[in-house]
């Protein structure tokens, strides 16, 4: 007797069940074409059939101007300019600066401070909190700046914007390496070019500089002693 392969078994199964399958298909077609009775056509309304109710949002006009500015600075995550605040809140620059002064006073003794830099504002952690913040973030204290870099940074902070040639003239030595170190740490930045022969780069401090030294603005720099200016 010849062995039956898998294909032969499948063919035999189809033959055996052909009549049954045909009967099932005919029954299904009749059911699909039969009219729905009145009971089946009647649906019971549920809560999904009701129109969606509008979600009422809080009215921001109920907030004071200082609360609105505070909210924007909190969510920004980066410096916000005076122009941005006046445009979004539809108020004058004088109103914004008055509110900023009030916020600086409010946050002066808290764990976060309001930093001001060239009409830019940003919330930052208080410098006194630096050790606990580093511990929380798991970061190590950055390598200390060299005396040359600190000297260069001090000159830029008090004389900005200033060119490398002007810095070299004050220090009496080349400051290229110190400038590179300060730029790599985002303590200084290029602030334009001096409109003179060769158009040399002008350097200025950054918001990172203020945060690193616990300042809320450049006006917080200690005054130079007589003879240092």
Please, could you describe this protein's structure?
The protein is globular, with a radius of gyration of 37 Å. The protein has a three-stranded antiparallel sheet. It has helices spanning 6-33, 38-41, 65-76, 82-89, 93-106, 130-137, 147-159, 164-171, 176-184, 207-212, and strands spanning 80-81, 112-117, 120-125, 162-163, 188-193, 201-205. The N and C termini lie far apart (115 Å). The chain is built from ten helices and six strands. The protein is mostly helical and 229 residues long. 48% of the residues lie in helices and 12% in strands. The model is unreliable at 1-14 and 38-42 (pLDDT under 50). Among the domains are: 61-130, Arc Repressor Mutant, subunit A (Orthogonal Bundle), CATH 1.10.10.10; 142-220, Arc Repressor Mutant, subunit A (Orthogonal Bundle), CATH 1.10.10.10.
Name some characteristics of this structure.
229 residues; mainly alpha; Arc Repressor Mutant, subunit A; three-stranded antiparallel sheet; 48% helix; 12% strand
Query: How much strand?
Result: 5-15%
* The top level CATH class name of the domain at 142-220: Mainly Alpha
Q: Strand tally, please?
A: 6
- What is the C-alpha radius of gyration, as a whole number of Å? 37 Å
CATH superfamily of the domain at 142-220: Winged helix-like DNA-binding domain superfamily/Winged helix DNA-binding domain
Tell me the distance between the termini: 115 Å
Helix content: 40-55%
Q: Number of DSSP helices?
A: 10
What is the name of the CATH topology of the domain at 142-220?
Arc Repressor Mutant, subunit A
Give helix and strand order, one letter per element, not per position. Answer: HHHEHHEEHHEHHEEH
Sheet/helix structural class: mainly alpha
Strand order of the largest sheet: 1-3-2
How would a crystallographer describe the biggest sheet?
3 strands, antiparallel
Globally, the shape reads globular
CATH architecture of the domain at 142-220: Orthogonal Bundle
- List low-confidence stretches: 1-14, 38-42
Summed over residues and divided by their number, the pLDDT gives a mean of 78
């Amino acid at each position: 007797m010849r062995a039956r392969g898998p294909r032969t078994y499948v063919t035999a199964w189809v033959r055996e069940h052909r009549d049954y399958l045909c009967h099932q298909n005919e029954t299904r077609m009749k059911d699909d074409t039969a009219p729905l009775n009145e009971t089946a056509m009647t649906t019971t309304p549920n809560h999904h059939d009701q129109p969606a109710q509008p979600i009422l949002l809080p009215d921001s006009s109920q907030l004071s101007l200082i609360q609105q500015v505070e909210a924007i600075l909190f969510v920004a995550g980066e410096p916000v300019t005076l122009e941005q605040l006046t445009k979004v809140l539809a108020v004058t620059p004088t109103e914004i600066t008055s509110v900023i002064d009030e916020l600086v006073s409010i946050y002066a003794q808290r764990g976060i401070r309001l930093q001001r830099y060239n009409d830019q504002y940003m919330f930052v952690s208080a410098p006194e909190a630096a050790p606990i913040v580093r511990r929380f973030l798991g970061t190590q204290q950055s390598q200390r700046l060299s005396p040359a870099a600190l000297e260069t940074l001090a000159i830029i902070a008090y004389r900005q914007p200033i060119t490398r040639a002007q810095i070299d003239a004050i220090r009496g030595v080349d400051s290229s390496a110190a400038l590179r170190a300060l730029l790599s740490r985002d303590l200084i930045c290029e602030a334009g070019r001096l409109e003179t022969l060769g158009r040399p780069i002008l350097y200025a401090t950054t918001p990172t500089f203020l945060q690193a030294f616990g300042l809320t603005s450049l006006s917080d720099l200690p005054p130079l002693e007589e003879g240092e200016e």
